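Researcher: Re-running this chain for the archive, since the previous output was lost when a drive failed. Same request as before.
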Amino acid sequence: MNLIVIIAATLVAGIGSVWLAALLLRVGVRSGSGGVNPQHLLSLAAGALLATAFMHLLPEAFESRIEPALLFAVLLFGLVFFFLLDKAELWHHGHEHGEAADVHEGHGHSHEHHGHAHSHTPKGGGSWAVLTGDSVHCFGDGILIASAFIADMRLGLVAAIAVLAHEVPHHIGDLVVLRQSSANQRAALIKVSLAGTMTMLGGIAGWWLVDQLHGWLPYFLVLAGSSFVYVALADLIPQLQKRLPARQTAAQILWLVAGIVLVTLVSRLAHGEHGHDHGHDAGHGETGHVHKD
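Model: Regenerated structure tokens:
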């Protein structure tokens, strides 16, 4: 049963986020009025990722009997590891979503780039680099989601929602890049959707891997948490750190809080107030409660 749920959740997070991104592009993602503001999407995603890491994944891992200093060392290793992956452009989320979308929708003049220094040049090689990096990242997301589901059903659902939230603005950037390098918009959607299916493959691999190494489950959860923290603090939030009028700044904060509230509500609805306690005294203290149905 766990595997079926993992496959369903990873498909929704992987492919669903691509289709939602395409829908938002069709509606109009732009920085001005009359469309979906990309800054709000980034704020929502950052809040969801931080809440999932600090309120769910890390507390779950620290409920094991593993020495906290060791888990903190794994957390530090994870942050450095994802930084190195980012340097290799395999974990990169730094497309300038707002500016690219403005250009794509025909609203753009020249914008100053305040995110990571990646330009959306219409080159075939660049589009394949985007798809390769996206596929690797989606595969990793699938492993993280599977790890969370194996630890606790509620935790897995929260992780899947967080991945969905932060993949939407990322896929908006990907779709813009591919649409600029190809006149066929449907082909761009298919390519990014195929990259999104890697989330499901990562989920299956994670289900098998964590089940084989179930004693390592707390470490997998800490690595998942470090991934979410890194993406939120090193990639999403820096794109929000620019001087804005008080009204827009307040909107960013509200959307950030909305992401935190969204994760909290999903968690409560998934298992209720006491659903999280059901397996903690049944071997959870040592390795986590692992089920393979």
